[in-house]
Amino acid sequence: MADKLSKQSENAPGPWYVDTSCALCRLCLEEAPALLAYNRDESAVHFSEQPETQEEMAAAQRALDACPTLAIGNDG
């Protein structure tokens, strides 16, 4: 389970986030490329945009489900 106290600092404000346990496997990027992006130093990913539409919410959920390190969280 993602740790909301360890969020990547580059996450867009909102309920969806990636924490510091991201192993950069890139699986989430395949599921939600419009919402997730590499950090500046390319050591992890973060939510560059928060999902707004039903399609984006579904993509964010698929990314969460695909994450092998459970680094994606949703406080919403």
Please specify the SSE layout and strand pairing:
Layout: E1 16-18, H1 27-31, E2 36-38, E3 45-47, H2 54-66, E4 72-74
Antiparallel strand pairs: 1-4, 2-3
Describe the 3D structure:
The protein is α+β, with helices and mostly antiparallel strands and 76 residues long. It has one domain (4-74): 2-Layer Sandwich (Alpha-Beta Plaits). 24% of the residues lie in helices and 16% in strands. It has two helices and four strands. The strands form two sheets. A two-stranded antiparallel sheet has the order 1-4. The protein starts with 15 loop residues before the first strand and ends with a strand.
Looking at this protein, list some descriptive labels:
4 strands, 16% strand, two-stranded antiparallel ribbon, Alpha-Beta Plaits
Question: In a nutshell, what does this entry contain?
Answer:
The protein is of the alpha+beta class. The chain is 24% helix and 16% strand.
